[in-house]
Amino acid sequence: MTDTAFARRVKRRVSARIQEFFAVCPPGLRQACARELAGLDARIHDIQVVPGGVVFYARIMDACLANLWLGSPSRILMRLARFRATQFSTLEKKLSDIDWHLFLPAGTVPAIQVTTRTSRLYHSDAIADRCRPIVRAALNTGPRKETDSDQNIPSQTIMIRAENDRFDISLDMSGPPLFKRGIKTQVTPAPLRENLAFAILNAAGFTDQDVLMDPMCGSGTFAIEGAMIQARMPPGFHRRFAFEPWPGVSPAAFAHSRTQAAQQFSKVQSIFAFDVDPKAMRILSANLAGHEFLAPVQASQLDFFDLLPNRFTSRKGVVALNPPYGRRLENPGDTTAFYREITRKLAADFKGWRVGLIYPGKQFSHLNFLNLKPFPFFHGGLNLAAGIGTI
Description:
By secondary structure, this protein is of the alpha/beta class. The chain contains 11 helices and 14 strands. The strands form 2 sheets. The chain has a 7-stranded mixed beta sheet.
């Protein structure tokens, strides 16, 4: 098959068709992701919130833009097939029916991740062993699309999920999780993931016109996410994606989308980051360095309890806090008393500010005299929540 004939087939079978995609979301962020998808300037159809994430339908280039622009999901999968199989012979036949060479670059040796639940074919390694030679054989022929900086593009992963003998076969579009924005080079212990910070800021109503204070900044997750929102910068602007060498993706079209985004950037202003820990401030400085758009972020070593916001800005905005709790405190038993002092400080000095305050679980609801609305989520093996509201 000539390159031209292959390109026509890819267009007809892959890029021109409406495909099914699945945005994987951590618990608590599915509705936020659905709202983001609905707000994209793209042709996204039939957005459905389901267990584990959000299903949507689009052409592949619009799903590429979703990877670039969405701040809340962990990754985006492209569905290739769905079928029932109770025997390995059926599984092999169904896998062989997939036109792998239309979706993945020739010569690719993808990783295979398998999860099973209540299925007769339950052994994940055995399923992967059946899939691997079929995919390799399919990808050993056909034209390979070269891309610039090929070595920087994430490896390819096939995701196989079996539940009640029903198999979903998907490709991971994203590569590294989408919360890895490609900006932070260092982190403090127990760092907050960027997609959670993004969702909390959005829940607190933070916009590109707001002031943001991150007074327990650690490695700067809230401050950097806020700066990207102020800059109107796509969350994925500084990273690469697994889909970039796929036959159905136009490198020129995706590069043009990045260029268009860059032309709309705004200047960052009124982002303040503080921490009492000098090590955290060194880590923050390292993360801010090398990114010109982050230069306006004002960072200072300062204890939250000594912070008076009107010394830094006459405007009110959003204050976002990820305090230490549990093992991160010198005395874990002091968590309740510590949060009591935090809420008192907020009530005394941040009147009129909107707040996003992370706290561990429901046990601190009795401290909530600020009447904050809980925004529950799961992070680091813990059930957490962010108190959202206006002080």
